[in-house]
Amino acid sequence: MFDGLWHGLTIILAWQKLLAMIAGTAVGYFIGAMPGLTPSIGIALLVPFTFGMDPVIAMIMLVSLYMSAEYGGGITAILLNAPGTAAAAATAFDGYPMAKKGQAGRALTISILASGFGAFSSTVFLILTAVPLSIFALAFGPSEYFALAVFGLSLVSSLGGKSLLRGFIAMIIGLLVVTIGVDPINGSFRYVFHLDLMEGIPFLPALIGLFALSEVFYMLEGVNEKPVEPEKIKGLGVEAGFLKKQWFTFLRSSVIGYVIGVIPGAGATIASLVSYNEAKRGSKSPETFGTGNPEGIIGSEAANNAAVSGALAPMLALGVPGSASAAILIGALTIQGIQPGPLLFTKNPEIPYSIFAALLMSAPAMVCIGLFGLRLWMRVTAIPKGLLATCITVICIIGAYASSNSLYPVWVTIVSGIIGYLLRKVHIPMAPIVLALVLGFMMEVNFRRAYIQSGGDISVFLKHPITMALIILSILSVALPIFREMKSRRIPAGGAAADKAQ
Asked: pLDDT tens-digit profile of 75-89?
């Protein structure tokens, strides 16, 4: 293995390969930062340009783009509350509040360092554990995917803010939205009063509306307010002491991102939300999450970049894509006449090992580009609110249209923006809605598949060890916060009674 990795490093050090890596990283930044252009769209757009290339150069460019595009979404999430990618939604929870406080530079620095750490460490995990973890991921059937979705939704107890009730209301709203469209099992129509609704509510335009466009309405309320002047960056932009204290958050988030990324269909969005929740659960000040806690940025950004390597593990080892982007990469390899899977490491060892080397080297390159452009991106916060609101609206509309080249996603973005604004006015949190939009379809489809395959035997969800473990974790995730809240209410009452007795 180490001989193959050394061979991959010698391959990538040629100037053509280095140029391909830098070009892919730079294009990935733009793709990720543009709401509506996902990493998978970026890879698909670049694939035609790789037809005449050497397969190694083509894969280095595409993988580098994939990695940096996952980070690029965090830039607009922090500066504009407009996540460029779905996985960057969790970054906006604390990144944007930090930017509003004038700490945009600090937030961006933490995000790029967390992304770089997640990308590099997960590549090491990929090199060491690709085959065994890929085999484990194949053990997931419909009941396991259902339990995974339920576990993800159980995080609403932590992501719902101070009020559990509002968090559950938000989650129910998201689950109801997911049911719109054609039934995935029997093909019947559900809440379809217009032909466009047959395809359901597209996730990315809804996300752009809920976060970015709703923020535009808030900006228009205070259009005459002066923009917050960002703090001047000194040195790296963040204290070394802070980074040392957060080493475990960096590592835990990377592991979570990589493991969830390995599971086909889970992806970077679920990884970032789960990791954000775990960062909040393990923090000494969880009540500050959502108001500008940098630990939340670490949790999200380290995980969503680590999920990239995770998604590549089953692709390289088994020929099974771990994400939509990995599926397009399989197509790019097939076009080059190379079949991913178990024989890839023996028939074409230069491909996987050059990918490993490219990931190891693109992580530092991504960090350097991010730090170099830091002061330039921070200038966005100095733009007057009226002009900034106009720019964000234009970006949202273009991004929504670009997601499928039709006007339907544009209307979804506009309506979602209005609904998001009204919900924020009554203090309904956005995080549980995003969680439900991501996991609702997975939960419904896999529950029904498992139920049908078992012949209507509901006990199928109690027979598989992975399913049982995830369901138990889900129950604990919901029950523990409720128990803590009930206990905290009893303590003051008991204390007051004791004081009266004295």
From this structure: 888 888 888 787 888
Residue 430, token pair as written in the block: 């956005």
* Residues ≥6 apart with Cβ < 8 Å to 100: 228, 292
Measured CA to CA in angstroms, residue 125 lies from 219, 277, 305, 313 at distances of 43, 22, 13, 10
Question: How many whole angstroms separate alpha carbon 57 and alpha carbon 194?
Answer: 46
At residue 161, does pLDDT exceed 70? no
User: Are the beta carbons of 70 and 115 closer than 8 angstroms?
Assistant: yes
Domain region containing 58: 2-140+201-404
How many C-beta atoms surround the C-beta of residue 425 within 10 A? 11
Residue environment code for 33-71, b if the CB has 16+ CB neighbours within 10 A, otherwise e: bbbbbbbbbbbbebbeebeebebbbbbbbbbbbbbbbbb
Number of domains in the chain: 1
pLDDT at 199: 82
- The reported pTM is 0.79
Q: To 5 degrees, how large is the angle CA 119–CA 348–CA 366?
A: 20
46 in any annotated domain? yes
